């Protein structure tokens, strides 16, 4: 134990937290509040039974399990004390605990044992005397400790003759350890990630064994997975984050692998020695990281039938439902009851096969029975509790034969305020767990899907490589048909999701109604200013209040209740007219202003007049300025409403942070551009200005939504752009985007090159400059890309580097300038200059293309967000030549789109949607956009056909008139001959022959015109005939 270091600060912080929870005397902590002493007597280590309350409590406070140790926590009012009885070597390790790091202290006493048995007995007697005769002490009898140390304690305790009652406080200790702090949550996260990676390794090993036909038993496969935990190179190669340390992982239990029809969904199941068989394969893995447990279970299916697929997908859907129920304040049995009710409503046929509990609490103990998610669970869930969410169905009859199978889905979850967070997310999608080894069956499924997924992966192109018009018509028609079919699927999916999201129970009328906001000027009469005694109009700037005399009383009106104030001159009098906000008054945007009691009596207006015009002018000025200041404050409050204060940046200590130097930042400080450095720290990055030390920007990994790198291949700057989840303050302005960039051109290089060009009249210098610029661009791209990758790596998987696809870009006007919009994997961006645009594709509900008409050079795009409260984004003036490319891109990222010939009033549309979203989807949802588009397309087609017909007639008439200059027989012969040529030969030959005929016709026309020059017949010019 020479390398053991105990943290005094952690011990004191957690011990104080235990004392605090102990004093609260909550119902869930019973019977702990009934005792004043909590006694933990640890015996010898027991590898067969590592999960004991006493060991968990020791690990929670000390970070390690100390065998042969007595620990007693005493909580007598303000007298808080922790007593240890330990050996000499352990006493040395506990010495740092005697020094409290904070002002809030409690006593720590360390009693050291020796080889003198009498002295050791005396130490135990001191502990017994501290408990006191006739008192009660909380113990943990279910731990079943054994060993010489425990026997000595039991002997002294029994022979003491003291009347001390022992109470089992195990359930209360569970409450003390249930809510995890930040360090514990970090350990749980690492444990869950380790389990996930091992599950991925199992999936590869299992599928490979099945595919190759290897005869391997469940035990042998389980041993392979167990050995992987000891593979240090494997864990180092995964790069699980700066906080992860290899060598601290251990198994909670041996891997549980089941197949072939024998399934047990209990956490105590064992792996048997049967051969691994195709079909349904269950695997459960549990890893402890620094003693904190995780649990993951998955169901793998080899060539599943449709019923098995359906049942598994329902299980995944059921887990999402339960995740929403696991929130702060929920009772364990209510979560189970809601789950059962969900199954009864959606899949009643599976209800008899559902497991008896939905999971259990977890942490330092693998299974805490006090927090079982079953029908008898009475514990209340709190934020940052950890649970093993275990859902499954067993003994399900197979479609063919008399065998049964089971499906299971187990994850480690963290309880939140509005729902749980899955720490072991992944490896549960259909593509992850279902394997189709039968080639014929797989071909059938691909044929049924029509190959749409494969076809949509092809990169769109605007180049026409065919020489013939009709060569690719069939291919384009097939692609168009697939796109239309996919769009119909997306529209149906959005409609169903909308109905489910805004069901009558939770999304009907009244969503987002404005709440009454009261304005209080004074709590009591004594707070009124002394100026009110003069019975004159007064302004209290500090309280934002106008005080008006009414019938001898000073009546205060908060400035926010004032609609307007008007000053007029009427003869010798000056008149002040006050108008207030009242129900029913037409107030423009405030027409629907809510009132606490609209039926009450309100003052709509009040008028005062006075001969003292100078004073009324001063009053009018003061009230106007007060109203402006209040309006400005309210605008600033709304502007900064979504700004969230970030946690503190944890700086790296002991090593130099990775740094990117000499970069500029946008938005800028004080409107001035300046250079600075960007550093990567433990939980975020920091930009530090090189000019002023106080000018710095901290961005946490947890607040990064998108990390974007834009190379400088076609730009003047190379960009590292961060789009934030919630805005932050930079200076006095909020910013949702922070960008670091460096200019490509070297400012020290004289681009004019006057002196060089006077001496050298060759292009060598220009070529050298171009090569240097290319090298500089390449170096900058590598530098910024490498730093972006370092940020993604340090974020522990929270963000990934996204790069714009310039070849998929299209021109548009998102704000005021026509710019190049570039898609990325997750976004649509414009990053070159502010204002920036970063559209998250997953947040888009639907896209609508406006002004899509034949003959127009541009069209507009509108993106509607899934959060209907957000204002739709408009991208205007997109060239019509890029319409097909835009449609193909939207379809490839699963965004349903519609099109129409005119611009719509989206303000009115979104107001209707927000008034009653459920009714909106019930009446067809976004279908009205496509319905309008179809009608307009039909009308456009009819118009185009009529125009084409008219054009044909005109062409015929023009041809007949222009042909009057020539001989009719020649013309008819030419027409017949050309028609035969076109029908007999291909298009290119026909074009050549038509060209030759046209030349011959022109020559004949010239000859005829010359021979007729002497006649009196009037001549027609081609231009005139063409105008007719």
What is the strand and helix layout of this fold?
Elements: H1 8-24, E1 37-42, H2 53-62, E2 69-76, E3 79-86, H3 88-94, E4 107-112, H4 117-131, E5 136-139, H5 148-159, E6 165-168, H6 170-178, H7 182-212, H8 218-228, H9 232-238, E7 249-258, E8 280-289, E9 292-293, E10 296-302, H10 306-325, H11 332-346, E11 359-361, E12 386-397, E13 404-414, E14 421-422, H12 430-433, E15 434-435, H13 439-449, H14 452-455, H15 473-501, E16 538-540, E17 545-550, E18 553-558, E19 562-570, E20 573-580, E21 605-610, H16 613-639, E22 658-666, E23 675-680, E24 684-689, E25 696-700, E26 704-710, E27 717-730, E28 733-743, H17 754-759, H18 764-794, E29 801-802, E30 810-812, E31 819-823, E32 827-830, E33 837-840, E34 844-850, E35 858-865, E36 873-879, H19 883-892, E37 897-899, H20 906-915, H21 917-922, H22 927-962, H23 968-984, H24 987-1011, H25 1022-1027
Parallel strand pairs: 3-4, 5-6, 10-15, 26-29, 34-37
Antiparallel strand pairs: 1-2, 2-3, 7-8, 8-9, 8-10, 11-12, 12-13, 13-14, 16-17, 17-18, 19-20, 20-21, 22-23, 22-28, 23-24, 24-25, 26-27, 27-28, 30-31, 31-32, 32-33, 34-35, 35-36
Helix pairs in contact: 2-6, 4-5, 10-11, 23-24
Summarize the structure in words.
Residues 810-900 form the Histone chaperone RTT106/FACT complex subunit SPT16-like middle domain. With 1028 residues, this protein is of the alpha+beta class. The chain folds into five domains: 8-178, 3-Layer(aba) Sandwich (Creatine Amidinohydrolase, Chain A, domain 1), CATH 3.40.350.10; 182-433, Creatinase/methionine aminopeptidase superfamily (Creatine Amidinohydrolase), CATH 3.90.230.10; 538-586 and 602-636, PH-domain like (Roll), CATH 2.30.29.210; 659-746 and 770-802, PH-domain like (Roll); 810-928, Roll (PH-domain like), CATH 2.30.29.30. It is built from 25 helices and 37 strands. It has an eight-stranded mixed beta sheet with strand order 25-24-23-22-28-27-26-29, with helices on one face. Strands 7, 8, 9, 10 and 15 form a five-stranded mixed beta sheet that branches. The chain has a four-stranded mixed beta sheet with strand order 1-2-3-4, with helices on both faces. Strand 2 (69-76) and strand 3 form a beta hairpin. It is globular and about 110 Å long. The N and C termini lie far apart (107 Å). Residues 439-475, 505-512, 587-592, 747-762, 933-987 and 1006-1028 have low confidence and may be disordered.
């Amino acid at each position: 134990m020479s390398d053991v270091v105990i943290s005094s600060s952690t011990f004191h912080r957690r011990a104080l937290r235990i004392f605090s929870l102990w004093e609260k005397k909550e119902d869930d902590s019973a019977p702990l509040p009934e005792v004043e002493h909590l006694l933990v007597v640890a015996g010898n280590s027991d590898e067969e039974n590592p999960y004991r309350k006493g060991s968990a409590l020791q690990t929670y406070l000390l970070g390690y399990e100390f065998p042969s140790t007595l620990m007693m926590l005493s909580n007598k009012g303000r007298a808080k004390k922790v007593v240890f009885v330990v050996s000499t070597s352990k006493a040395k390790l506990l010495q740092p605990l005697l020094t409290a790091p904070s002002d809030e202290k409690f006593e720590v006493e360390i009693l050291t044992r020796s080889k003198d048995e009498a002295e050791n007995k005396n130490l135990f007697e001191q502990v017994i005397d501290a408990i006191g005769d006739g008192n009660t002490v909380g113990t943990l009898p279910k731990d079943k400790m054994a060993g010489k140390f425990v026997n000595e304690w039991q002997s002294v305790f029994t022979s003491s003759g003291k009347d001390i009652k022992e109470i089992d406080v195990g359930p209360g200790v569970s409450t003390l350890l249930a809510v995890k702090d930040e360090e514990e949550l970090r350990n749980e996260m690492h444990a869950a990630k380790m389990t996930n990676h091992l599950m991925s390794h199992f999936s590869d090993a299992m599928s490979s064994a099945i595919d190759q036909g290897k005869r391997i038993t469940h035990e042998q496969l389980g041993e392979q997975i167990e050995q992987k935990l000891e593979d240090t190179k494997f864990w180092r190669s995964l790069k699980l984050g700066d906080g992860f340390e290899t060598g601290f992982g251990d198994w909670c239990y041996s891997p549980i692998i089941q197949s072939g029809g024998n399934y047990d969904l209990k956490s105590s199941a064992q792996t048997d020695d049967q051969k691994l068989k195709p079909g349904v394969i269950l695997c459960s893995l549990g890893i402890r990281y620094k003693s904190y447990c995780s649990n993951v279970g998955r169901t793998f299916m080899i060539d599943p039938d449709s019923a098995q697929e359906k049942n598994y997908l329902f299980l995944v859907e059921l887990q999402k439902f339960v995740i929403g129920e696991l929130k702060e304040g929920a009772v364990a049995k209510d979560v189970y009851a809601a789950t059962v009710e969900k199954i009864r409503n959606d899949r009643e046929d599976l209800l008899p096969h559902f497991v008896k509990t939905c999971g259990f609490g977890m942490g330092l103990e693998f299974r805490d029975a006090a927090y079982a998610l079953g029908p008898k669970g009475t514990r209340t869930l709190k934020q940052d509790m950890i649970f093993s969410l275990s859902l499954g169905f067993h003994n399900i009859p197979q479609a063919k034969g008399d065998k049964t199978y089971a499906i299971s889905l187990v994850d480690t979850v963290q309880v939140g305020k509005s729902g749980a967070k899955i720490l072991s997310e992944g490896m549960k999608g259909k593509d992850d767990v279902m394997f189709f080894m039968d080639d014929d069956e797989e071909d059938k499924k691909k044929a049924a899907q029509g190959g749409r997924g494969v076809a949509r992966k092809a990169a769109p192109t605007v180049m026409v490589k065919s020489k013939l018009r009709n060569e690719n018509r069939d291919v384009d028609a097939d692609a168009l048909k697939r796109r239309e079919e996919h769009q119909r699927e997306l529209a149906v999916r959005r409609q169903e999701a909308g109905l489910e999201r805004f069901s009558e129970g939770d999304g009907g009328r009244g969503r987002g109604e404005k709440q009454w906001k009261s304005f209080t000027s004074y709590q009591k009469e004594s707070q009124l200013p002394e100026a009110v005694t003069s019975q004159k109009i007064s302004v209290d700037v500090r309280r934002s209040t106008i005080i008006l005399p009414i019938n001898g009383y000073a009546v205060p009106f908060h400035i926010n209740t004032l609609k307007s104030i008007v000053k007029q001159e009427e003869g010798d009098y000056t008149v002040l007219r006050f108008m207030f906000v009242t129900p029913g008054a037409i107030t423009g945007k405030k027409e629907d202003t809510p009132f606490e009691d609209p039926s009450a009596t309100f003052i709509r207006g009040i008028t005062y007049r006075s001969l003292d015009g100078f004073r009324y002018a001063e009053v009018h000025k003061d009230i106007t300025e007060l109203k402006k200041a209040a309006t400005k404050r309210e605008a600033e409050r709304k502007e900064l409403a979504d700004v969230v204060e970030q946690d503190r940046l944890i700086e790296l200590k002991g090593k130099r942070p990775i740094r990117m130097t000499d970069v500029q930042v946008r938005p800028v400080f004080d409107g001035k551009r300046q250079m600075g450095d960007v550093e990567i720290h433990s939980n975020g990055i920091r930009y530090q200005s090189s000019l002023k030390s106080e000018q710095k920007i901290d961005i946490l990994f947890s607040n990064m939504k998108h990390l974007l790198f834009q190379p400088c291949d076609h730009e003047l700057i190379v960009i590292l752009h961060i789009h934030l989840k919630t805005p932050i303050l930079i200076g006095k302005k909020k910013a949702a985007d922070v960008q670091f960039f460096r200019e490509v051109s070297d400012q020290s290089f004289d681009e004019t090159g006057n002196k060089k060009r006077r001496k050298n009249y060759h292009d060598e210098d220009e070529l050298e400059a171009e090569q240097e610029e290319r090298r500089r661009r390449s170096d900058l791209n590598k530098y910024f890309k490498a730093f972006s990758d370092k940020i993604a790596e340090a974020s522990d998987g929270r963000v990934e580097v996204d790069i714009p696809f310039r070849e998929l870009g299209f021109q548009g006007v998102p704000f005021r300038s026509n710019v190049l919009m570039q898609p990325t994997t997750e976004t649509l961006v414009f990053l070159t200059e502010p204002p920036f645009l970063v559209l998250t594709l997953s947040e888009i509900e639907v896209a609508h293309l406006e002004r899509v008409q034949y003959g127009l050079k541009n069209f507009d795009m509108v993106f509607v967000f899934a959060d209907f409260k957000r204002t739709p984004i408009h991208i205007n003036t997109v060239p019509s030549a890029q319409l097909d490319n835009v449609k193909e891109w939207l379809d490839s990222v699963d965004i349903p789109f519609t099109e129409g010939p005119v611009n719509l009033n989206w303000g009115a549309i979104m107001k209707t949607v927000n008034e009653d979203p459920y009714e909106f989807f019930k009446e067809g949802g976004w279908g009205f956009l496509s319905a309008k588009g179809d009608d307009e397309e039909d009308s456009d087609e009819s118009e185009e056909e009529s125009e084409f017909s008219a054009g044909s007639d005109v062409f015929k008439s023009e041809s007949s008139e222009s042909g009057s200059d020539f001989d009719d027989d020649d013309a008819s012969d030419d027409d017949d001959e050309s028609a035969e040529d076109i029908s007999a030969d291909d298009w290119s030959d026909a074009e050549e022959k038509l060209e030759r005929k046209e030349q011959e016709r022109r020559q004949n026309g010239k000859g005829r015109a010359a021979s007729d020059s002497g006649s009196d017949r009037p001549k027609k010019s081609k231009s005139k005939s063409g105008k007719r």
